[in-house]
Amino acid sequence: MFQPHPVMRIKLFTILLVVAVAVPILALADIGDYRAGSYEFHLYFDNDQLFADRDFQFKYDVSTQEYVEPALVTGFPYRGEIINFAGEAAANFKFDPRGGDSSFKTGKISVRAPYVPDGQRAVFYDPQGNPVLTIPVSESSYCNDDGICNADRGEDGRSCPRDCRTSTTMPVPPAASAPTSTGTGGSYALGLVFMLIGVALIGGLWWLFKKRDSGPTSMPPSSFGPTQDKLPTPPAPPSNTTPPSYPLRG
Fold first, then answer.
1. Is residue 244, in this structure, part of any structural domain at all?
2. Is residue 248 part of a domain?
3. Contact between residue 221 and residue 227 where contact means Cβ atoms under 8 Å apart
4. What is the pLDDT of residue 82?
5. Which of 108, 137, 142, 222 fits 119 for a cystine, CB–CB 3.0-4.6 Å?
6. What is the domain range of residue 45?
7. Structural domain contains residue 100
8. Each residue's pLDDT tens digit, 108-145
């Protein structure tokens, strides 16, 4: 069987250790990016009316790019609201579907809005304040305002304060500490689970390599029966003696 060189084993161990540490860190960083991200809605503008662009299967995307309020040159902008599961307007945004071009009447447009972790729908209003379009966004929300802090969904005191400000928490997977109600405890608890799994995998591989290197162990001498060195000495052969004489009879 192929036995890896010691240097190769060290390199393999280092690679596995880096992966085990990097994966949970990248997962947590990804969650953090989306908390400060933005929606990008794919719309169609037609003579002061707004529609969802039918050429897109998904009417919006969630981007890690932070929302920046655009500079508007019109005095009659359109606006929008992100309504959360509690029915509150969690975020507001304004936009100009014409992009400063008064001659633009019909065409595809892209509208950005701030991302809301517990967003349920986006409502768009015309310059007169009339609602003209509603797009659901609940599929991209990991906070659902149900009163329970779901650490496995990424909810914590910063991303979902409505759920995680109480002491009611959902149980986390085994080997992970219970999330706290403040900070990013839920996310770090999930990352700890990934790290423990990675360390256990590395430890198992390292033990397997050491076991292969040690090779088969020699068996101790059997304790049943005498060994070759302790065989009994056979008796000496009889010596050559003169046969006994018998008297002659007359």
1. no
2. no
3. yes
4. 97
5. 137
6. 37-141
7. yes
8. 999 999 999 999 999 999 999 999 999 999 999 989 88
